[in-house]
Amino acid sequence: MIVRLRRSFDVLPVLALFGSCFGQQKQPQDIQQTVTVVGEAEPVALGQTARSVQVIDTQPMSLSLQEIADGLRSDSSVDIQQRGAMGVQSDVSIRGGTFEQTLVLLNGFRINDAQASHFNLDVPVPQQAVGGLAVLHGSGSTLYGADALAGVVHVSTWKPRESSLRLRAGGGSFGGNEQAVTGALANQMRSLVVAGERDFSTGFIPGRDYRSESASAEGRTTSSLGESDLLLAGSDRSFGANQFYGNYNSWERTKGWFVGFTQAFREKTTAAVAYRRHADNYILTRTNPAYYANNHVDASWQGALRQTVTLGRAGKLFVGTEENTDSIRSNSLGQHGRNRTSLYADADLHRGAANFSIGLREEILSGGRVVSAPSFAASFLLHNVWKLRGSAGYGFRLPTYTNLYYNDPTTISNPSLKPETAWNFDGGVDWYPSTRVAASVTGFYARQQNAIDYVRRSVADKWQAKNLAEVRLTGIETSVQMRLQGDQQLKVNWTAIFGSQDVLQGQQSQLVFQFPTNRARVEAWLHASSQVALRPAFTVTQRVGQTPYSTVDFAVSRDRGMVRPYVQGTNLYNTGYAEIQSIRMPGRGILAGIEISLSRR
To answer: Which residues form the signal peptide (predicted)?
Structure first.
């Protein structure tokens, strides 16, 4: 599914943070008019969408965020499970689904990894070149295809409005240091953004050092034909993987390459093509590389064509076709390949204050199997204050090559795994008492079949890949947002998830039942003066069968002027916790530096 972004970042305000007012600043924008680029066939205002969506504008917060995962944490329905900091390795899941059930898009292109879903969030674009994030809660397979079983994360690159140059350097705890450069040339008809960053650390404990580098170049131009967009990006990450995959002091290095091209033909047609390549070199015992090592290289091609048909005053019909192929060459997984061809249609209809969306995707898998993914959503706006909404959708996911073929001293594969499927239902109420305040409550239910998990009877056994017959998850998510003067914001949200473990029949679960049963977050975006920005965040998380833990983060920066110092503090209470079983997270950390910002209109 290709998402046209031309309009989105002209009006995309920050929804991720909230705050109180210090001094006189410009009037805030209308929350209902914030544009979302996921969950609908084309960008629409949040006040019109029938889906549960969160939007995070990361550019104003670039000096307060260390990585993309930090921005996603502002959504309480998103669970980030980190093994390594600074984008080294993070798993992302939504509404209690596993990290394998979340689809990650980059400018509308799929970047999920066919080898292993641990690399889905290996976004090759530097964090400073990311413009915003959007999160769809619930199934998105009708529009986006496989892997969008529990939700979708959409990463959009920055679209500059003026020419600029930013240089950054900093350092801090655990031998950490960072450097970044971002340059942009822009006018009304075209833009070019070139960015690069590198992050290093000696590690907060032995065997957890890392080096992360990434670079990207993106050019956009508008002609009589339409808008053209070419993105080139690459990343190189090497890191100590001590305890990542069992009781081993391991080491790993990943490399990623991406190229994507999108061409819009006026307002009716969009064509796109992309290529992604990812390499993974894994050494089980760092001090003895010859004992056990894996080398994987997977590649994927994707192409898409979409047409928009206007249905008069009734709405629009979106039809499209996509082709996806992926392959892998590996010393342990072997050589494999598969392809998917899909056709889809989605009708967006409007009648008065009511909006309806009904769609269907037919995806043909290798071997001739056809998967149908229908969806329906509706919303009704009452007096421009209350919005009632509901949706139902079918999602599916194919097993990764790791699920099917990977064996090591602790893991047994299963070549007979079936694809995961799920029906997702939700209903909610949004309240807009003013243009500056929004509150929402949503209940959701997911019924998964053939959910893929790794299970074992006891710690003496190996983990075995297996389909679980049926997994049922029920939950509620709430959010209150307040936008005051200027870009100051306050956000409070909470998500609770419930799921019975009877399907395990006494076995231990490695993936499916590791979700947070409760997660609450309070976050603010404040200005202590006209130039000093503050970003405090407080989070409480309780996972299945575990005691709750809390974390406090705080960032302060100068966000105007040429010289912009910044300080980022993480886990300031020095809480001991793990987001993945037995993988210890860092304690209190401080990172400080200076950014030099030059701009020309």
So the answer is: none
